[in-house]
Amino acid sequence: MGEVIIRTSGLTKRYGEKTAVNQLNLSVKKGEIFGLLGPNGAGKTTTILMLLGLTEPTAGTATIEGMDCTRNALGIKKIVGYLPDNPGFYQDLTGRQNLAFTGRLNGLSEEEIKERSDAALKRVRLEDAANKKAGTYSKGMRQRLGIADVLMKDPEIIIMDEPTLGLDPEGMRELLELMTQMAKEDGRTLLISSHQLYQVQQICDRVGIFVNGNLVACGEIEDLGHQVQDSTKYSLELQVDPCDDKILAEISRQPGVSSIQKEGNMFVVESKYDIRSQLTTFLGSHEYTIQHLHQRGGDLDAIYRMYFERAEAEAEAAAMKATQKGKLHNKLFRGGGAR
Amino acid sequence: MTAAVLKKEKQPSEKQPSAVKKEHGSHAGRHTGLMALYHKELADHLRSKRFLIILLLILGTSIASLYGALNGLADAISSDSNFVFLKIYTTSGNSIPSFMSIIALMGPFVGLTLGFDAINSERNNGTLNRLVAQPIYRDSIIIGKFLAGNAVIMIMVFTMGIFVGAVGVLSTGLIPQTEEVLRVLAFLIFTVVYMDFWLGLSILFSVVCRHSATSAMAVIALWIFFTIFMSMVANIIANAVYPITTQYEAALNTMNNYTLNLGLNRISPYYLYSEAVSTIMNPTVRSVNVVTMQQLEGAISGYLSFGQSMLLVWPHLTGLVALMMVAFGGSYIGFMRQEIRN
Question: Does this complex have an ipTM over 0.90?
Answer without folding.
Answer: no
